[in-house]
Design goal:
It is built from 10 helices and 13 strands. By secondary structure, it is an alpha/beta fold. The strands form 3 sheets. It has a 6-stranded mixed beta sheet, sandwiched between helices. Strands 2-1-6-7 form a 4-stranded parallel beta sheet, sandwiched between helices. Helix 3 crosses helix 4 and helix 5 runs antiparallel to helix 6. The chain is globular. It starts with a strand and ends in a 5-residue tail after the last strand.
Length: about 290
């Protein structure tokens, strides 16, 4: 009989309570702030990280060392698990998939006779765009789904999930962040606010707009058109711009006839790359792109 362990990390923007409820092991992403390690969700709350962003030059991008994953694989083996599924942010955004895969290689070098099966699912996206998939997979696992069924579910989700994101300010978006493109777009088009689409790790700039209100209207219309075609559940995430996030939810619900599945705050990993003025909408295309 299969015994399955699901591992993800705090860049999924899942809460500790959700992880505990559904048996998910939630690893903290580690930042270096002024040369000291700080653990997302432990040393850093969402709000405290937002306040640190003006000093982003003192913050290094988050990571999880391969040694942490190796330790979790060894624990899973000791506790009789047959399968470990590690679900990570896309490698464009965080190096966690590479670290998890390296740890898998190290594990089998040290334990060549081990029967534990280790699966690394690179979501090619980030934030709740993969966190929601982790949550659904964990629910399925609790209901008795097989490892094969879970992996097929995740593969389908990541093939169809899309994230539309805008930022109402380019301040504090680090020049070495995964979404540096947002900054360059803003400069190229005379500081218009950028709107981008992310699918399967590809970042596509859409036509932006000048001014916060025009950007909001255009962003929500992009989302409305895309979601209405797919008739998909959708999710909204934000950092400090709660007002814009709630307004987007109200506008989309009025247009689509149903509310978002979830409205949540972006955690430190997401905000580090997007800035604290970002708002994103996540949904799934009807067919893989």
């Amino acid at each position: 009989m299969e015994k399955i362990r699901i591992i993800t990390d705090t860049s999924s923007d899942l809460s500790v309570e959700e992880a505990e409820r559904y048996g998910i092991e939630l690893l903290p992403v580690i930042f270096q702030i002024d040369g000291k390690p700080c653990y997302e969700g432990i040393d850093l709350t969402n709000e405290s990280f937002y306040e640190l962003m003006p000093e982003h030059d003192k913050i290094s991008a988050g990571q999880i060392p391969a040694a942490v994953y190796l330790d979790r694989y060894e624990r899973a083996q000791r506790h009789g698990y047959t399968d470990v599924i590690v679900i990570t942010a896309g490698s464009t955004f965080l190096p966690t998939a590479q670290a998890a895969a390296l740890a898998r290689s190290l594990f089998f070098e040290q334990y060549p006779q081990a029967e534990l099966r280790i699966h690394v699912a690179n979501s090619k996206t980030y934030s709740i765009a993969f966190g929601a998939a982790v949550l659904e997979a964990a629910k399925k696992a609790q209901s008795g789904a097989s490892c094969t069924e879970l992996l097929r579910f995740l593969e389908d989700w990541f093939a169809r999930v899309e994230l539309y994101i805008t930022s109402f300010s380019m301040r504090y978006v680090p020049v070495n962040g995964a979404l540096e493109l947002m900054r360059s777009i803003a400069i190229e088009i005379t500081r218009a606010f950028p709107i981008i689409r992310i699918s399967q790790g590809q970042v596509e700039p859409l036509e932006g707009a000048y001014g916060a209100q025009q950007t909001f209207s255009k962003f929500v219309e992009y989302c409305r058109q895309a979601i209405s075609e797919a008739r998909s559940p959708y999710y909204i995430t934000y950092a400090k711009r709660e007002q814009e996030a709630k307004a987007a939810a109200e506008t989309l619900e009025a247009a689509l006839g149903y509310p978002p599945e979830r409205i949540c705050q972006m955690g430190a990993s997401t905000v580090y790359h997007n800035g604290r003025a970002a708002v994103a909408v996540i949904f799934q295309r009807e067919q893989p792109v």
